[in-house]
Design a protein that fits this description.
- By secondary structure, the protein is an alpha+beta fold.
- It has one domain (2-106).
- Helices cover 15% and strands 35% of the residues.
- The chain contains 1 helix and 8 strands, in the order αββββββββ.
- The strands form 3 sheets. It has a 4-stranded antiparallel β-sheet with strand order 2-6-8-7, with no helix packed on it.
- The radius of gyration is 17 Å and the shape is flat.
- Residues 1-23 form the signal peptide.
């Protein structure tokens, strides 16, 4: 019985602390990045948390969570979603959004 409780507890922790993407998912053709889309932890704290470097606290409803800070300059990104860094053309760089890698070009 104890191993099952351990597995259920670990699964619950993984589920509630996994990053989620708020906004439009990536999927196929070039599009300007939506700066309102944020990658946030799927966690709910009642008090403002101390977030890791390059992350900031955001209040969503009655919960606080940590979201990645936006990049300093806007980019145009392909809607490609691959599990490993892709080969990008000259002037483009690979970027990771959650579990997806794609190619982005700074404007």
């Amino acid at each position: 019985m104890k191993p099952i409780l351990t597995i259920l507890t670990a699964s619950a922790i993984a589920l509630f602390t996994a990053p989620i993407t708020l906004g439009n998912p990536l999927s196929g053709s070039p599009v300007a990045r939506d700066d309102s889309a944020q990658i946030c932890l799927q966690a709910c704290w009642f008090e403002k948390p101390d977030c890791a470097e390059d992350w900031h606290a955001v209040k969503q409803g009655g919960c606080w969570t940590c979201c990645q800070s936006p990049s300093p300059s806007p980019s145009v990104c392909s809607r490609l979603c691959v599990p490993t860094p892709p080969f990008c053309p000259d002037g483009w760089s690979d970027e990771q959004f959650g579990e997806c890698w794609t190619c982005c070009k700074d404007e």
